[in-house]
Amino acid sequence: MRWIRCILFTYTLTVQFASLVYCHVSTAEPTLTGKQVRFVRLFPGRFGDPIHVDFDVQDSSNAISYVALSYSWGSPENTKTIFRKNASVPVGENLYQALQDLRDKYKESLWWIDALSINQTNLEEKESQVRHMDRIYRHADHVVIHLNAHVRDTE
Fold first, then answer.
1. Distances in whole angstroms, Cα of residue 153 to Cα of each of 6, 86, 149
2. Are 43 and 53 in contact (CB under 8 A)?
3. Neighbours of 64 (CB within 10 A)
4. Which of 80, 88, 76, 69 is nearest to 137 (CA)?
5. How far is residue 32's CA from residue 10's CA, in Å, rounded to a whole number?
6. Which of 46, 66, 57 shows the shortest CA–CA distance to 117?
């Protein structure tokens, strides 16, 4: 049995459970097939700088070095903007905060992030990728769990 190395980045006593935020991956993106996985290339930047990403589709049988991110999706009404090839991409506020907190100042990194790595509007892709999530997390170099310290209790 292989243990997954987890990094707990921050914590909060109040966790708001995930709601679905749609349309992070453009419907123009080709549907992933077979063992393909869409990774997020996170470009470097300082905290507060605009966030820039790109996608990198790879066969999951390739030996790829990446980090898998686990986080609370948060409310679909609260979105922020990141950029891919100078086009704006709406993401949930919690994902935006995680990307701000976790990106490196000087070098790019490769991530698997469910909201971006899976086309949430493509049911076929979603079903296929969800079946492979255990393998995706198991083969990650690290799994980072980001519990947003800015989440408020909704009760």
1. 25, 35, 11
2. yes
3. 16
4. 69
5. 32
6. 57
- Express each pLDDT in 80-100 by its tens digit: 999 999 899 999 999 999 999
Paired sense of beta strands 36-42 and 109-113, if any: antiparallel
Residue pair 95/113 in contact by the 8 Å Cβ criterion: yes
pLDDT tens digits, 36-68? 999 999 999 999 999 999 999 998 778 889 999
Tokens of 122: 């493509």
What pTM does this model have? 0.77
Chain-centre distance for alpha carbon 113: 2
Contact 140, 60 (CB under 8 A): no
pLDDT at 24: 52
Token digits for 121?
A: 């509007």
